[in-house]
Please model this.
Amino acid sequence: IKMENYFKEIEKKLKEKIIFEKLEIVNNSHLHKGHKFFSEDKYHLQLKIKSIYLQSISRINAQKLIMNILKEDLKTKIHALQISIE
Model:
């Protein structure tokens, strides 16, 4: 599965559950190449999400919501996820 396609898949999953104005997915995997647990098939991602809805709930609940939606991905494809909510 190509990276761009995979990111579209993530966006689709989030769209089904969260109202957001803008989403940017940044792949930071290359920054972790030397790390002990680095694996080519797992991503280090940063989600930059602009959402009035997420702004309206507590930061911790917003993070939990996103982690929940991507639960399966976090087990299989995503090694680390950094979330920035605007």
